[in-house]
Amino acid sequence: MAVTTPRREVVLRTAQSVGRKLISRKGLLVLGLAVWGLASCARRSNYTVDSRPNPGWPKANVQFYEKRFPLLRVAHPQVADAEFVGDDQLCMTCHETYVKTFAHNVHRGQKCEDCHGPGSRHLISRGQEPGLILSFKRLPAAERSEICLKCHEQNQCAPGSRWRTSVHAHHGVSCTDCHTSHYNVPPNTPPTVVARNNSPQHMHQAVAYYQEQMATADQNTIRAASNHMGAISPQVCYRCHGAMQQFEQVAHPHQIGGVHGFTCATCHDPHGKIRQETRTDLCLQCHQGAPTAAYHSSVHFAHGVACTDCHNPHPHTFPSQVVNIGHTSVTRPKRLPMSVDEPNVCFKCHPKVYAQTGMPSHHPIKEGKLVCSDCHDGHGQAHGNLKEATVNQVCYRCHAEKQGPFVYEHPPVTENCMICHEPHGTVANNLLRQPATFLCLRCHSGHRTGPTFGPHTGAGLTDVGTDPAQQRAFFSDCTECHSQVHGSDLPSPHVPHALVR
């Protein structure tokens, strides 16, 4: 006797079977996508111009401009209900070391309360109650800088006036993060006097004499002798920019701390932005000869391109310097200290050339056999920044066999190679702007002449343009007969003895 299965159970079993098949197919699909993803990740583009995956078209350079920040100003910190004491001897009771060294400090002639605020409540509590004195360890960065700017924003320390709109200020850096307020004055600093006692009369005399000395002394000498109050570059910069320390270890003429004395402050103004003159003018002070002698009259300079737009002052930051770990090898591109990362740098401003180099016929740039500077001089003043006076002379450096002279010259060839060729890349073979036949027909009639014309114009032939059989013969490829298109010592074939019908 047959056992009947309830309809509901049959439906349930059918659904489970279909579900298992779908899950199996889905698993295979996921596995296939994963394998495809791993294979695609293993491929590396020849023109990796940024660190993001699949960068696509090269990111264009925009004209350099100084980034502007709003004016950062906060209220000057205050100690509530406190009064000025004006007696540093009382501070010496607990802070003897600071008060004694303050006599030799860059800030000598001032009082402790000029920076730390009125200290009456701090003295009464013997320092046991926090918040009754301005402590640079507890104040926010902007308020610490505000105390310094009380004196340094308008006086002889000009960099203080630029601090409020600086990158450092807007990223939570204060003056005391780099400068040491209690920094001792090194030897050879221009001298001043120190008051023999703390009476108002002697303090006034000391400050007046100090101001007189500062007015007559060379400010650069004073700052250099004081080592910028402990902000010695590049060591102080490495506190936040530790990744840049490896740049000091790169041996080349621009090495930080090297024989030429480069420091971070050579190009960067810590109280503002990048020094504008370091983008071109500072470079040309040393690089006055070839190849930069004509840079001010070059095409690049006329379009606002600066030296640092092509030359990376921090060469270790090139994305192309990332280690390429393949399935069978580990490779690292060569280090390029202060060199141009060709052709990636050029493509950032010349995207059309980037597209042309990917066409079927192109110079072997992406294959690594040729770079832009083989033909172009980025510092030159010739048309197109060419390395030679004319296009033809550039081409003849590699294609000398096309130079001639020939008995029968092809005028476009002697005039300009680019009349027929596009050097960066084309769809047609041999870098031709069009297939050979169409290119020739731009100037030549293609034997479309009647029998009444002379022998050199196709005598004895019917009009090729109206004869399909002759079109196949004559319009297949002009180079089948005219193979020496750049010039020849033999005349073109013709039939001078043909009869005119």
Your description of this structure?
This protein is 29% helix and 2% strand. It is mostly helical and 501 residues long. Among the domains are: 88-230, no CATH class; 244-315, no CATH class; 337-407 and 417-428, no CATH class; 438-488, no CATH class. The strands form 2 sheets. The protein has a two-stranded antiparallel ribbon. Strands 3-4 form a two-stranded antiparallel sheet. The longest helix is centred in the N-terminal third of the chain and has 36 residues, at 7-42. It is elongated, with a radius of gyration of 39 Å. The chain starts with 6 loop residues before the first helix and ends in a 13-residue tail after the last strand. Mean pLDDT is 75; it is low at 1-5, 38-56, 192-198, 317-321, 452-459 and 497-501.
Short description:
This protein has 18 helices and four strands.
The percentage helix is 25-40%
Strand content: under 5%
- Specify Rg, calculated over alpha carbons: 39 Å
- Number of helices, where a helix is a run of at least 4 consecutive DSSP H or I residues: 18
What is the residue-mean pLDDT, rounded to a whole number?
A: 75
Shape: elongated
Structural class: mainly alpha
Give the termini distance in whole angstroms: 105 Å
The tally of beta strands, per DSSP, is: 4
Widest β-sheet, arrangement of strands: 1-2
Q: Helices and strands, in N-to-C order?
A: HHHHHHHHHHHHEEHHHEHHHE
Biggest sheet layout: 2 strands, antiparallel
Q: Which segments are poorly predicted (pLDDT under 50) over 5 or more consecutive residues? A: 1-5, 38-56, 192-198, 317-321, 452-459, 497-501
